[in-house]
Amino acid sequence: MKAQIFCVTLLGLGLAAASAFASSATSRIASTEFRDAAALVADANSTIQQLQGTWTQACLSWNPSDPATADDTRSYFGSYTFKGSEFIWSQEVFTDSECKKPLAKLVATGFFKIGDAVPDIEGAFNIDMFEQFYVHTLLDSSKRAFEFCKGGNTPLTGVVECSSIDLFQIMRIEGDKLREGRVNGDHPATSSSTRPSYLYSIGYKRVS
């Protein structure tokens, strides 16, 4: 899988949505349901409690002609799980447009820390993700995927593991929806000065 495909959430953890959606999936508009970030950040433990549980995206699809999908990926969904000060982010990709035929799965684990409220986005707060460890698994050996750990230019075979750099994200809780920052281009923010300044309109729904 091309590395840029997986740099959505992070963790992107995310982390992330894919850059193909960037132009239409961003917003500075505040939701009527978002949590008061200043109050949450004043007590980081409160924010951590609000994040606890699992948040999952709906199935999202790529246009087969998109140059970003040089492998056999046609759809994907991601999820976050927060437990205490630890997180798990995962993204599973599929060879069909309806998330029914698995191709590969990328899982990142690590720790997170809540930072300040984001001045220009109501309800949003800074979140730093560190000590990340990735496991990238090929689920269909008859199809083509590229290895995340080596930058997306090496074919993925079997299971590959690697450590990664710290990431500096923003998030906002909107009732049962969690939104994260839009990454800059195809690369997640690797320093506080390059932290995202917009939120994806595509979010994660709380499932537990």
Give a summary of the structure in a few sentences.
This protein is mainly beta.
Structure report:
The protein has helices at residues 3-6, 37-42, 44-51; strands spanning 26-27, 53-56, 60-61, 75-83, 86-94, 102-117, 125-138, 159-163, 167-174, 177-180, 199-200, 204-206. It has 208 residues and is mainly beta. It has one domain. Strands 2-4-5-6-7-9-10-12 form an 8-stranded antiparallel barrel. It has a two-stranded antiparallel ribbon with strand order 1-11. A hairpin with a 7-residue loop joins β5 (86-94) and β6. The longest helix is centred in the N-terminal third of the chain and has 8 residues, at 44-51. It is globular, with a radius of gyration of 16 Å. The two termini are 29 Å apart. 41% of the residues are buried.
Overall pLDDT: 80
Number of domains: 1
- Can you write the helix and strand succession as a string? HEHHEEEEEEEEEEE
The coarse overall form would be globular
Show unreliable segments: 1-32
